[in-house]
C-alpha cells in the first residue's frame, strides 16, 4: 500500500483507541526514503507544473468523486485508527472531497498581472508554482488536514511529499490511492510514513523542498521551523489553540449551550479550534450551565463504530493520562468545581482510552486548564461582569487561533470582532469552516494560512517580466 519503500523494514503498528486492537501496520521510513521521494517528486514537478490547469482539475474532481463513492469504507478506517464516531468520520471524508473540488474549481484562476509603461515596455507578472512541497499531518483530523495541504499544492501545479501521523496514517494512504486511481501520476505525491524525529525532520531539513506546511503541537512547530530555517523554505505552521467562547447576556442560553457542547466535545475535544474556555455573563450563567450539563450528560460515549455514539476515546492512552493530569492538578489545587466527569472510567470494564465528558465551573484564571491547551473533552466555564473583562480574559493566552462571541447586539459584535486576537472570529457559531475562507492563527497558533485562495497564493511565486519591444 505504501509507496516508495521496499520490504524487510521496521514497521509501525497502528492501534484502535477504542479497544487496543491492531488496525494495520506501515513502514517506518527513513531519511533515505525522504531523499528518494523528493527526487521523484522533483522530477514529476517538471511535467505536472506544465500540465494545463483544466487537466489538473479533471483529476482532482475525479478523485473527489471516487472518494465520495468509497466514503463508508474510508470513514470506517478513519474511525478504527483515530477513534472518532463514524458520523464524524463520514463528514470528514466528505470534507476531503469538498476541499478537493473547491481547489479543482479555482485551479489556474490566480493568473498574474499585465501592464504597459512608456519607460519599461510590457510589464508582466507570472505566478509560478514553487516546486516540491512537504506536508506534516497530525492524527486528530488527518483527512481534512491532508486536503487543506494537498488541494492547493496540486491545484497550483506543485508536487508533494507528505508525512502522516504515526498513529493515524492509514486513511491518508487510502486517500492518496484514490488520487492515483483518478489519474494522478504516482510521482506527483509521495507519502513517506515514519516517525517525526526521522521522517519529519528529514523533510524540514531537505534542501530541495521549497515549502513545508506543518500542523501539530507548538513545540514541534518551533522545532520544525528551526530545522527548516537554514534552507529558507517557506514554512507554514498551523499550531494549537485555546479558543474562547464569550456568551453575552442577550444570547439564547439554549442555543449557546448546544454550541458549547458540540464545539467542545466534537472529535473528543481534540480539535485545534475546539472551544477550550467559556466565559458567560453572570446574569445568565445559571441557566446556561444547567443546559450545558444536560446536553453533555446526554452524550453517548463509546466505540465510534457503534450506533448512536456521540464521542469516542481520546486518541491514545498517554494523551488521556496527560489530559487527566491537567484536570487533577486543577482540582487538587482547588482551582475549579467539578460539575461532571473528571475521573477515569473503570479500566476493568473497558480497554479503550475513554474519558468522561468533563465540565469545570468557577475556574480560576490561573488554573492549568485555562493557561495550557487542553486537548480532550474538558470544558472550563467562568463567568464575567463586563464585556471588557470577557475580551481581556479571552485574549490572555499565548494562543490566537479562534474565538466566538454569542450575541445579537451589533455594537458588541463590532467591538468583539475587532478586539479578539484570533485568526478566526465566529458570531453565534464556532468550529465550522467552509473551504473558501482562510484558516490559521496569530501569536503561538501559527504562521500563514490554509484554506481558500489564500492557501493557493502561498504555493505560487511571482515572476516579473519586463519586455522592451
Ligand atoms: P505533534 O506535533 O506531536 O505531531 C504532529 C505531526 O508532527 C505528526 O505527523 C508527527 O509525527 C510530526 N512530528 C513529531 N515530531 C516531529 C519532529 N521533531 N519533526 C517533524 N515532525 C514531527 O502533534 P500531535 O500529533 O500531538 O497533534 C496535536 C497538536 O496539534 C495539538 O497541540 C493541536 O492543537 C495541534 N493541532 C493544530 C491544528 C491547527 O490547524 N492549528 C490542527 C490540528 C492539531 P509522529 O506522529 O510520527 O510523531
UniProtKB/TrEMBL annotation:
It comes from the Archaea. InterPro entries: Ald_DH/histidinol_DH, Ald_DH_C, Ald_DH_CS_CYS, Ald_DH_N, Aldehyde_DH_dom. One of its GO terms (molecular function) is oxidoreductase activity, acting on the aldehyde or oxo group of donors, NAD or NADP as acceptor. Keywords: Oxidoreductase. The keyword Acyltransferase does not apply. Signal peptide: none annotated. Pfam families: Aldedh. SUPFAM superfamilies: ALDH-like. Homotetramer. PANTHER family: ALDEHYDE DEHYDROGENASE-RELATED. Belongs to the aldehyde dehydrogenase family. This is Aldehyde dehydrogenase family protein. The lineage of its organism: Archaea, Methanobacteriati, Methanobacteriota, Stenosarchaea group, Methanomicrobia.
Amino acid at each position: 500500500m505504501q509507496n516508495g519503500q521496499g520490504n524487510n523494514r521496521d514497521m509501525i503498528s497502528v492501534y484502535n483507541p477504542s479497544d487496543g486492537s491492531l488496525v494495520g501496520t506501515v513502514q517506518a521510513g527513513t531519511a533515505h526514503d525522504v531523499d528518494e521521494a523528493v527526487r521523484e517528486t522533483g522530477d514529476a514537478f517538471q511535467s505536472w507544473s506544465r500540465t494545463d490547469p483544466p487537466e489538473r482539475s479533471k483529476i482532482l474532481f475525479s478523485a473527489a468523486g471516487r472518494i465520495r463513492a468509497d466514503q463508508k469504507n474510508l470513514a470506517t478506517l478513519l474511525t478504527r485508527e483515530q477513534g472518532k464516531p463514524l458520523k464524524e468520520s463520514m463528514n470528514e471524508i466528505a470534507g476531503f472531497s469538498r476541499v478537493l473540488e473547491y481547489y479543482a474549481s479555482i485551479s489556474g484562476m490566480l493568473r498574474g498581472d499585465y501592464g504597459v509603461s512608456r519607460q519599461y515596455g510590457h510589464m508582466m507578472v507570472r505566478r509560478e508554482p514553487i516546486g516540491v512541497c512537504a506536508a506534516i499531518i497530525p492524527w486528530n483530523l488527518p483527512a481534512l488536514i491532508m486536503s487543506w495541504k494537498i488541494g492547493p499544492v496540486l491545484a497550483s501545479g506543485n508536487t508533494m511529499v507528505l508525512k502522516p501521523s504515526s498513529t493515524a496514517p492509514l486513511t491518508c494512504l487510502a486517500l492518496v490511492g484514490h488520487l492515483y486511481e483518478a489519474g494522478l501520476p504516482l510521482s506527483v505525491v509521495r507519502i513517506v510514513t515514519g516517525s517525526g524525529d526521522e521522517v519529519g525532520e528529514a523533510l524540514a531539513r531537505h534542501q530541495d523542498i521549497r515549502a513545508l506546511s506543518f500542523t501539530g503541537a507548538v513545540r514541534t512547530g518551533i522545532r520544525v521551523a528551526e530545522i527548516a530555517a537554514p534552507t529558507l523554505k517557506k514554512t507554514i505552521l498551523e499550531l494549537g489553540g485555546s479558543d474562547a467562547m464569550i456568551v453575552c447576556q442577550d444570547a439564547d442560553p439554549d442555543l449557546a449551550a448546544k454550541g458549547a457542547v458540540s464545539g467542545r466535545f466534537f472529535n473528543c475535544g481534540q480539535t485545534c479550534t475546539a472551544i477550550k474556555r467559556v466565559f458567560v455573563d453572570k446574569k445568565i450563567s445559571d441557566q446556561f450551565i444547567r443546559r450545558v450539563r444536560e446536553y453533555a450528560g446526554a452524550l453517548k460515549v463509546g466505540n465510534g463504530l457503534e450506533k448512536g455514539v456521540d464521542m469516542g476515546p481520546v486518541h491514545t492512552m498517554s494523551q488521556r493520562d496527560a489530559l487527566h493530569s491537567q484536570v487533577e492538578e486543577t482540582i487538587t489545587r482547588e482551582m475549579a468545581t467539578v460539575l461532571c466527569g473528571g475521573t477515569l472510567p473503570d479500566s476493568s470494564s473497558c480497554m479503550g482510552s475513554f474519558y468522561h465528558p468533563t465540565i469545570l465551573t468557577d475556574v480560576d484564571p490561573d488554573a492549568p486548564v485555562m493557561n495550557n491547551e487542553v486537548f480532550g473533552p474538558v470544558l472550563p466555564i467562568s463567568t464575567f461582569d463586563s464585556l471588557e473583562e470577557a475580551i481581556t480574559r479571552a485574549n490572555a493566552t499565548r494562543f490566537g487561533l479562534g474565538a466566538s462571541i454569542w450575541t445579537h447586539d451589533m455594537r458588541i459584535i463590532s467591538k468583539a470582532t475587532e478586539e479578539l486576537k484570533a485568526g478566526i472570529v465566529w458570531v453565534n457559531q464556532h468550529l465550522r469552516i467552509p473551504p473558501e475562507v482562510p484558516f490559521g492563527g496569530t501569536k503561538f497558533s501559527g504562521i500563514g494560512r490554509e484554506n481558500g485562495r489564500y492557501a493557493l497564493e502561498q504555493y505560487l511565486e511571482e515572476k516579473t517580466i519586463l519586455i522592451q519591444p
